[in-house]
Amino acid sequence: METLNLKQLSDDRAALQTAGDLEAMRAIMHDSFRYVDSSGRQFDKETFLDQFVDPASVQWITQETVTFDETVKGEIAVVQLLLEERFILGTNAYEGRFWALHLYIKENEEWLWQGGQATMIHET
Fold first, then answer.
1. Range of 31's domain?
2. CB atoms < 10 A from the CB of 18, how many?
3. How does residue 1 score in pLDDT terms, banded at 50, 70 and 90?
4. Is the predicted pLDDT of residue 5 greater than 90, yes or no?
5. 111: Cα within 13 Å, side-chain hemisphere
6. In this structure, which long-range contacts are made by residues 70-75, counting pairs with CB atoms below 8 Å and at least 24 apart in sequence?
7. Residue ranges of the DUF4440 domain (predicted)?
């Protein structure tokens, strides 16, 4: 049952992020959210929303989940994803595969996105 719930939450997160839905994204993110992007930059909840969700900052073309794997231990879930992404950030276009590690925490029977880290995959 958890797999279906977390997979759906992960899919919903991607859909909300690429749609630029700031309020809905804010609702599924934990208040102590932390994220490190593939360039090593660190973000809290509001700076992540500003940089990677707000349509004034980012134009998402696509974010597709290639692989999804989860480990659930009580109230904590670790989700490993391989994402194919295309987006425009400022004046720069980005396209590539990213391995992402997302952490979720369960509070009051609801899973919230706690944060994570992304690494660009250089394919040869």
1. 2-121
2. 21
3. very low
4. no
5. 23
6. 70/2, 70/3, 70/6, 70/7, 72/2, 72/6, 74/106, 75/105, 75/106, 75/107
7. 7-112
The count of domains in the chain is: 1
Alpha carbon distance 7, 93 (integer Å): 28
* pLDDT given at position 122: 83
CATH number of the domain enclosing 13: 3.10.450.50
At 23-58, the pLDDT tens digits run: 999 999 999 999 999 899 999 999 999 999 999 999
**What is the gyration radius of the CA atoms in the chain, in angstroms?**
14
Determine the residue type at 97: R
pTM of the model: 0.91
Say which DSSP state 124 is in. -
